[in-house]
Amino acid sequence: MRIHRYLTPFATIACIAFCASASAQDAAYQKTKADVVIFNGVYPGWPWICAGASGTLYCVWREGTIHDYSADGRIMLAQSSDKGRTWTEARVIVDEPNVDDRNVAIVELPNGELLVNYNTYTAAKESLAMTARSADGGKTWAPPQSVGIPNTRTRAAAVVLSNGDLLLPLYVAPGNGAVAALSYNNGRNWERVVVPDTEGFVGDEWTALEVEPKRIIGISRNNVSGSDGFFWVTESKDRGKTWSVPVKTNVQSERYPSPAQLSMHGTTPTLVYSDRRMVSVAAVKTSDPAFVNWDVENRFRAYQYNPEATPLPDGSYPCSIQVTSKIRLIVDYEIGPAGNRIAGYYCTFPESW
Fold first, then answer.
1. How do residues 25-78 score in pLDDT, each as one tens digit?
2. What does the DSSP assignment read for 199-250?
3. Cβ of 311: how many Cβ atoms within 10 Å?
4. 3-state secondary structure of 15
5. Residues 6+ apart with CB under 8 A from 122
6. CA atoms of 230 and 276, how far apart (whole Å)
7. Nearest to 83, CA basis, from 41, 36, 48
8. What phi and psi values does residue 271 have, to the nearest 5 degrees?
9. DSSP-assigned beta bridge partners for residue 77
10. Which residues make beta-bridge pairs with 45?
11. Contacts of 274 (CB under 8 A, 6+ apart)
12. Is the bond into 174 cis (omega within 30 degrees of 0)?
């Protein structure tokens, strides 16, 4: 296994990582420099990270030439066996000629298979959600399969529900609307469920989490014309078969909207998101059972890309994995002076989290 590109030993990171009171965190972001660079490329974007049962970390992203349609857009994979300190050489796992394969995410299924979801994107701006799977830890991949729902795109990975079903958050493009795809056979076939529409809401890139058996929370960005950047929440109480009408939360991605990642940090519901797109990334928690109101005043300021708080030309699709009881590795894409790269930040969460 070929190892490359790490900057800071994990033990040192854990030792020196800043951990302070909420008031101190209000004054500054914990990091202003990446701890690890997973990949340097031409125009890498939109990563996702997951952990396997063995502890292996898997990171996927799209490599292309520009933000929009790239004829050679392809899906890349790298792996780490040491909590993200070092990564294997990135390699291509999906690349359809003259199609931009993008918006990728990955999960390890209970049977040990890796399931990647992504969408194709053509020069005519047509999209189709797809999956690919590996039964040998990412060494080889079966031919991609369509999810079977036209004009759909992806962002977050499929969620493995407590009964073994899968839920894949999708959104319609061209067009609007949030869609939950359900699978009862490990992602071989999918059933389409539409999330209700409402005034002011456009179904967009969203993330989902089963917060208790049968109950799923979905958090969506709302990238409409003139968007205020606030996230919207919807929920299902029957494993994704029906959904509530979305409502606006009090969490905002300023400057431009970008999607968030909803997960548990220990037992605490945690939203990792760009609080100022292309400037900084934060995390916020909630005790609201409706997941509408979050503690934004005491949000954990994880990192900003530059000490001077100047914006990057492009970036801000953070996702993360918990690597110790207090530390999360947040992975992001950054297009800017430091390079066009997939980068990681080890962030030590407050004791109160």
1. 345 999 999 999 999 999 999 999 999 999 999 999 999 999 999 999 999 999
2. TT----SEEEEEEETTEEEEEE----TT---EEEEEEESSTTSS-PPPEEEE
3. 18
4. helix
5. 69, 98, 99, 100
6. 12
7. 36
8. -110, 115
9. 60, 91
10. 62
11. 253, 258, 280, 281, 282, 316, 317, 318
12. yes
- pLDDT reported for residue 5: 34
Q: What is the rounded CA–CA span in Å between residue 324 and residue 296?
A: 24
What values do phi and psi take at 50, rounded to 5? -145, 165
Residues 101-129 have a mean pLDDT of 98
Stated length of the chain: 353
Helix, strand, or coil (residue 16): helix
Q: Both tokens of residue 299?
A: 């949000």
pLDDT at 13 over 90: no
pTM: 0.91
**How far is residue 214's CA from residue 151's CA, in Å, rounded to a whole number?**
28
Where helices occur in the chain by DSSP H, the ranges are 10-16, 22-27
Q: How many CA atoms lie within 13 A of 193 on its CB side?
A: 18
Phi, psi of 241 (to 5 degrees): -75, -30
Instruction: Scan for tokens 């947040």, then name that residue.
Output: 330
**Percent with pLDDT over 70 in the chain:** 92
Domains of the chain: 3-348 (2.120.10.10)
Residue with tokens 């009862």: 184
In tens, the pLDDT along 255-296 reads 999 999 999 999 999 999 999 999 999 999 999 999 999 999
Strands 215-220 and 230-236: antiparallel
- For residue 25, which of 330, 297, 257 has the smallest C-alpha distance? 297
Structure confidence by residue, pLDDT tens digits, 202-242: 989 999 999 999 999 999 999 877 789 999 999 999 999 99
Measured between alpha carbons, how far is residue 297 from residues 4, 139, 155, 187, 294 in Å?
Answer: 39, 45, 27, 40, 9
Cβ atoms < 10 Å from Cβ of 295: 16
